[in-house]
Design brief:
Shape: globular
Strand order of the largest sheet: 1-3-4-5
Helix content: 10-25%
Number of helices: 2
Largest sheet: 4 strands, antiparallel
Strand content: 35-45%
Distance between the termini: 5 Å
Mean pLDDT: 95
Order of helices and strands: EEHEEEHE
Low-confidence stretches: none
Amino acid sequence: MMPLAFMKPGDSAVVRRVGGSDEVKRFLANLGFVDGSTVTVISEIHGDLIVNVKDSRVAINREMASRIMV
């Protein structure tokens, strides 16, 4: 397992665990980052990521990406 923040553009992985406070977990779950969902990194700019998750394109910062384990 590794944080989503370490993935490079073009990489795909399955979400294994989401860390953080209950509020952070709920926020990420609403975006589609739940256990078992597939995430594909589209691009990376200064550590921030644009990813495809559940047929949606989402931008997340490095701090949030480091809480998502794949």
